[in-house]
């Protein structure tokens, strides 16, 4: 999370590389994706994830985190 914002990526195992972004203080049910309106934050999230990601030893959880 970045402040009240939550970024997530659903269905990574299906190859989804798109992050979603929600403001939990105004949208606790995560109904309004703010990613398109905040590309600079999405790039920041991608950079953090790329830097901090560690591959799982479990083969069921090995998939590309950031597709280049």
Mean pLDDT, rounded to whole units?
85
* Whole-number count of domains: 1
Give the helix tally: 1
From the alpha-carbon coordinates, what is the Rg to the nearest angstrom? 13 Å
Structural class: alpha+beta
The level of helicity is 10-25%
**Main beta-sheet strand count, sense and barrel state:** 2 strands, antiparallel
E-strand count:
2
Note the beta-strand portion: 5-15%
The stretches of 5 or more residues where confidence is low (pLDDT under 50) are: none
Which geometry do the CA atoms define? globular
Instruction: Report, as a whole number of angstroms, the end-to-end distance.
Output: 23 Å
Instruction: Give the SSE order as H and E letters.
Output: EEH
Describe the strand arrangement of the main beta sheet, using strand numbers. Answer: 1-2
